[in-house]
Design a protein that fits this description.
Blueprint: H1 29-35, H2 59-71, H3 78-89, H4 95-103, H5 110-117, H6 121-133
Helix pairs in contact: 2-3, 4-5, 4-6
Length: 139
């Protein structure tokens, strides 16, 4: 890394030979390479500044958008919204967890959830406990 004079004359570097860094570029490769530049570990010359600044949605914004999508509009019934939300939350879980989550509607008792999920009381209770402790359900 060195300071150069840009131009086409003797001792000058043509503009097309320079690397121009764009901190807003979506590809992080150049930012990563610049962050590793030092003068053989002496740290007398080291790049300092913002190497990467990309606008992207945050996790909580994306999670809120997913829940809003799963809830659907006012036109849907409460049961349809609950099923869509259960499908979203249950993505990647076991079929048993999805069945229990689909059976929970906010009005059913645990006994009714057991009957609706067509599973044993212990298994349903265990899944409900896991959902409660992970805050996917509340009392």
């Amino acid at each position: 890394m060195k300071i150069v004079e840009v131009g086409t004359g003797h001792g000058q570097v043509p503009a097309d030979a320079l690397l121009v860094h764009d901190a807003h570029h979506p590809d992080p490769s150049t930012a990563f390479a610049i962050s590793r530049l030092t003068d053989s570990g002496y740290l007398n010359q080291s790049p300092i500044g913002i190497f990467r600044q990309v606008e992207r949605p945050t996790y909580d914004d994306q999670a809120r958008a997913q829940v809003t999508t799963a809830r659907g509009g006012d036109q849907e019934t409460a049961d349809a919204r609950a099923q869509r939300l259960a499908a979203l939350i249950g993505a990647g879980d076991t079929p048993e967890e999805r069945a229990v989550l689909a059976a929970v509607d906010g009005a059913r008792t645990v006994r009714e959830v057991v009957a609706h999920a067509r599973m044993g009381t212990f298994e349903v209770s265990k899944i409900l406990f896991q959902l409660l402790t992970s805050r996917l359900l509340r009392r």
